[in-house]
């Protein structure tokens, strides 16, 4: 992707993200139509769908040769990441959106032939836009984010985890997760994977690990975290495939190998 086009795409994507976020903010107290998907806690609202529709129509009208991967059904069915692919979560943190009316984000990653070129994560109610272009650093609104510290001990780290670590699974049976939680300084659960990636990029959380995330949860986050020296893999250190669901670990590289080797891989055996 040439630089001039990438800059144009970045400005355009940013404009749409802010426009979509402004609409959500304006309608935040309107009555919601809420439905459930795979189970009673898997929520979707008309706002999720309308926001995705807004992106889809704008993208298809302006860039008819671009592809879309997205959560709520308006995207394309892709077998490869060839070409320019927009990977969109119209509202990441729908449960927060419904119950808290805050702590949710719009997440848009733009990939060219599988390479993350642009990442945008918009914390709608805080009006904070995390953004990055590959190779050009990451920003929170207009402020450049600093590279993550080169030295970081796991003992002094805050890790984002979620409640699945309290449910039955092999890693819990092997007491691996309990050991990891005891080792780190603290753990947090925010309920929006995209925002948790943004916090890792910002250095206010040192890592975020979870099971079963979809491409739209992480596509923008990967680009932004990369730009502050962070590393993203699956929870066992393997590479990610953005055409499928996967476990995810995004963190400061100084603690990545320790989490993978001393905890996750040990627990999987
Ligand atoms: C969810 C959020 C949540 C994560 C779930 C995701 P959604 O996305 O990111 O934090 O734990 O796995 O599905 O459904 O609110 O877009
Ligand atoms: Ca969802
Ligand atoms: Ca999501
Ligand atoms: Ca969503």
TrEMBL record:
<dbReference type="InterPro" id="IPR020583">
    <property type="entry name" value="Inositol_monoP_metal-BS"/>
</dbReference>
<feature type="binding site">
    <location>
        <position position="217"/>
    </location>
    <ligand>
        <name>Mg(2+)</name>
    </ligand>
</feature>
<keyword id="KW-0479">Metal-binding</keyword>
<dbReference type="GO" id="GO:0008934">
    <property type="term" value="F:inositol monophosphate 1-phosphatase activity"/>
</dbReference>
<feature type="binding site">
    <location>
        <position position="92"/>
    </location>
    <ligand>
        <name>Mg(2+)</name>
    </ligand>
</feature>
<dbReference type="GO" id="GO:0007165">
    <property type="term" value="P:signal transduction"/>
</dbReference>
<feature type="binding site">
    <location>
        <position position="71"/>
    </location>
    <ligand>
        <name>Mg(2+)</name>
    </ligand>
</feature>
<protein>
    <submittedName>
        <fullName>Inositol monophosphatase family protein</fullName>
    </submittedName>
</protein>
<dbReference type="Pfam" id="PF00459">
    <property type="entry name" value="Inositol_P"/>
</dbReference>
<keyword id="KW-0378">Hydrolase</keyword>
<keyword id="KW-0460">Magnesium</keyword>
<dbReference type="GO" id="GO:0046872">
    <property type="term" value="F:metal ion binding"/>
</dbReference>
<feature type="binding site">
    <location>
        <position position="89"/>
    </location>
    <ligand>
        <name>Mg(2+)</name>
    </ligand>
</feature>
<feature type="binding site">
    <location>
        <position position="91"/>
    </location>
    <ligand>
        <name>Mg(2+)</name>
    </ligand>
</feature>
<dbReference type="GO" id="GO:0006020">
    <property type="term" value="P:inositol metabolic process"/>
</dbReference>
<dbReference type="InterPro" id="IPR000760">
    <property type="entry name" value="Inositol_monophosphatase-like"/>
</dbReference>
């Amino acid at each position: 992707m040439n630089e001039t086009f990438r800059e144009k795409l970045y400005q355009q994507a940013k404009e749409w993200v802010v426009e979509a976020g402004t609409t959500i903010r304006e309608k935040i107290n309107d009555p919601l139509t809420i439905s459930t998907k795979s189970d009673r806690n898997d929520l979707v609202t008309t706002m999720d769908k309308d926001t995705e529709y807004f992106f889809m129509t704008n993208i298809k009208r302006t860039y008819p040769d671009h592809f879309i991967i997205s959560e709520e059904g308006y995207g394309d069915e892709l077998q490869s990441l060839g070409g320019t692919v927009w990977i969109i979560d119209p509202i990441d943190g729908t449960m927060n959106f419904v119950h808290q009316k805050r702590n949710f984000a719009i997440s848009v990653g733009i990939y060219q032939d599988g390479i993350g070129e642009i990442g945008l994560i918009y914390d709608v109610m805080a009006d904070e836009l995390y953004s990055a272009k590959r190779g050009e650093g990451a920003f929170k609104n207009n402020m450049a984010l600093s590279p993550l510290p080169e030295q970081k001990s796991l003992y002094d780290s805050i890790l984002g985890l979620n409640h699945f670590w309290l449910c039955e699974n092999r890693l819990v049976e092997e007491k691996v997760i309990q050991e990891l939680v005891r080792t780190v300084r603290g753990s947090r659960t925010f309920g929006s994977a995209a925002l948790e990636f943004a916090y890792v990029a910002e250095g206010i959380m040192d890592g975020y690990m979870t099971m079963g995330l979809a491409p739209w949860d992480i596509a923008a986050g990967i680009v932004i975290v990369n730009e502050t020296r962070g590393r993203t893999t699956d929870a066992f250190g393997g590479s990610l495939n953005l055409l499928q669901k996967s476990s995810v670990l995004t963190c400061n590289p100084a603690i990545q190998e320790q989490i993978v080797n001393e905890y996750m891989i040990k627990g999987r055996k």
